[in-house]
């Protein structure tokens, strides 16, 4: 009887330990944070930081004319917007996130589908 109780306790502890893991993949605003490649665009990566800043030094989304601009990202519902602001003009691209996992975002700009893969 005592062994059965110990086995049940160990099972319960293991279930609780697994269920208390990192749930950031369940929330889109947390899942998008990180460094990504975009299959359909140029080689290189973009990084979306938790503070809303965007690093696009490989010119994956914005070409080199935007190198000296402030780049940010924001999420409204399932719409991911990336911005480049030179102080007088904001240029942006919007992606509708149609599905996501911890390592992949499937997005659309209304015409094309873009696959973001986390590095």
Describe this structure in words.
This protein is of the alpha+beta class and 119 residues long. The protein has one domain: Lipocalin (Beta Barrel). It is 18% helix and 39% strand. It is built from 2 helices and 8 strands. It has helices at residues 2-19, 28-31, and strands spanning 34-38, 46-48, 54-55, 70-76, 79-85, 90-100, 104-108, 113-118. An 8-stranded antiparallel beta sheet has the order 3-2-1-8-7-6-5-4. Strand 2 and strand 3 form a beta hairpin. The longest helix has 18 residues, at 2-19. The chain is globular. The model is unreliable at 5-20 (pLDDT under 50).
Topology:
Elements: H1 2-19, H2 28-31, E1 34-38, E2 46-48, E3 54-55, E4 70-76, E5 79-85, E6 90-100, E7 104-108, E8 113-118
Antiparallel strand pairs: 1-2, 1-8, 2-3, 4-5, 5-6, 6-7, 7-8
Short characterization:
This protein has helices spanning 2-19, 28-31; strands at residues 34-38, 46-48, 54-55, 70-76, 79-85, 90-100, 104-108, 113-118. The protein is of the alpha+beta class and 119 residues long. The protein has a single domain, classed as Beta Barrel (Lipocalin).
């Amino acid at each position: 009887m005592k062994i059965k109780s110990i086995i049940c306790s160990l099972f319960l502890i293991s279930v609780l330990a697994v269920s208390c893991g990192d749930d950031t993949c369940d929330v889109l605003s947390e899942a998008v944070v990180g460094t990504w490649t975009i299959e359909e665009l140029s080689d290189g990566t973009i990084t979306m930081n938790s503070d809303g800043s965007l690093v696009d030094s490989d010119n994956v989304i914005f070409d080199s004319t935007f190198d000296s601009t402030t780049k940010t990202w924001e999420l409204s519902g399932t719409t991911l917007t990336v911005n480049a602001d030179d102080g007088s003009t904001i240029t942006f691209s919007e992606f509708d996130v149609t599905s996501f996992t911890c390592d992949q975002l499937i997005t659309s700009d209304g015409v094309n589908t873009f696959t973001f893969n986390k590095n």
